[in-house]
Amino acid sequence: MSVALTLALAALGGYLLGSIPFGLLLTRAAGLGDVRAIGSGNIGATNVLRTGRKDIAAATLLLDALKATAAALIFGLLSPEAGLVAAFFAFLGHIFPVWLGFKGGKGVATFLGALLGLAWPAALAFIALWLATAKLSRYSSLSALVASAATPLVLLALGQPLQAAALAVMAAILWAKHKENIIRLRAGTEGRIGQKS
Question: Would 111 be classed as within a structural domain?
Fold first, then answer.
């Protein structure tokens, strides 16, 4: 199989894995209706939590992460480059799923899942930064922004420049998807972790 065909298959397979809308599927299976009709209209774990079902939100978080991890590991068997391409496209598939009119989640769990499949020490650094920022600020969105921005630097420090470049692009997309959160953070109106509406 040629390199080009291998990478094309990795991109397609990664996208299809990433585009599985677990938040939507799980909430419907639990009889909670369409999660896009509540809160932010997002299919990610944070919005699923607004249904009041912590178990469904946790399952969504886990599965949204693992679909990118699976893409990285499965296609990584073909080549490291194929694993990276698959993880990247799984992230894109989550954010822009064709089945939902290209309107998906914000990508934090899938970003972490991709990182876990590509460079687990960097994934641990992401988690540590997220937790530290969350403890200090109590802003979930800010924690994700800080951790994702630091990820390419961590990968560079680990001697993985190709992964650093890919995750830098992913971080930029993640930041763009958090535009409204950034506006609220600057205005001081962003909801804090544990804060009731």
Answer: yes
Q: Model-level pTM?
A: 0.93
Distance CA 113, CA 127 (A): 11
Residue 77, judged by CB atoms within 10 A of its CB (0-12, 13-18, 19+), counts as exposed
What total of structural domains would you count in the chain? 1
Where in the sequence is the domain holding 31, given as residue range(s)? 3-97+106-187
Q: pLDDT by residue (tens digit) across 52-82? A: 889 999 999 999 999 999 999 999 999 999 9
- Two tokens, residue 69: 């991890």
Does residue 153 belong to any structural domain of this protein? yes
Query: pLDDT (tens digit, 9 = 90+) per residue, 123-141?
Result: 999 999 999 999 999 999 9
